[in-house]
């Protein structure tokens, strides 16, 4: 290579390197917002979140439908399923294909027997479970490669009641989710004080265990630790968290310990709502409506015992749902009564939450899901 060619070659290298350096890094990710539509919202929205700064972009309406109170994405990110919570009317489940730009294209709608659909999640590829709070039933459904609902769905009716005459006169299936191994589907039933465990694989859905929680506790939501070693259940009525380990059969049925969500002085009028572990498993967070708080617990690395480290109140208004962003540095809270989504900074070392000043105005947000 002569000197002229060498100079040209290195000049091109410098130019290409400069172009690469000057290209901005996109730190934004999409997230979807489910809402109640009786006070101004129209359905499912999408917004963008900057994982570096914590800033939230303006929301975009993607799908008009009544009360999409819970959403979930498939493991491959190609499908979004939404339930339309409609009181005493037979619920609808909406299947959407997610486009490359995040927009939703309706693939199919399913109406089935049941009341008050409030939760949906994928337990296997193309297989979903829906909890029906009003009728106390659980619906197992499947979709084909085009997102169309198959006709071989199954429904399981829960039975029983609890001691709370106002809230537990009948079964109230709430959250439903598959365990980390993909083996069993767990369903929290607030009305019967049970965690129902199902084997959904095979021709017929089969109940394999019923885990009794404290009488009158009202289990609502639950989360599995990233290590898969424990499951934490959030009890709405008692405002407590139970921590469970697997028994000899692999079912999370051995109760380790129970902690109060809030001190006795703050518990009046509260109802526990949502629960999530941090990505590293060192902290657990739970929201409490009525008392308008997000509670942070430190998780012991060996015993998984929970120690409260913070009761965060600033800017919180009926926090029905919340989510930790993909970076783990922020926690986004859906304030149902505050008509906004607030962004909190999460200290990775202490687990403590602090305000960022960032928020997004949305009428009655009740579910947040990152793409």
Automatic annotation (TrEMBL):
Coiled-coil ranges from the UniProt annotation: none
Keywords: Carbohydrate metabolism, Glucose metabolism, Signal
Residue ranges, annotated region (Disordered): 153-175
PROSITE patterns to which the protein is assigned, alphabetical: PROKAR_LIPOPROTEIN (PS51257)
Residues of the signal peptide: 1-18
Entry GO CC: cytosol
SUPFAM superfamilies: C-terminal (heme d1) domain of cytochrome cd1-nitrite reductase
Recorded family membership: Belongs to the cycloisomerase 2 family.
Protein name: 6-phosphogluconolactonase
Organism of derivation: Breznakibacter xylanolyticus
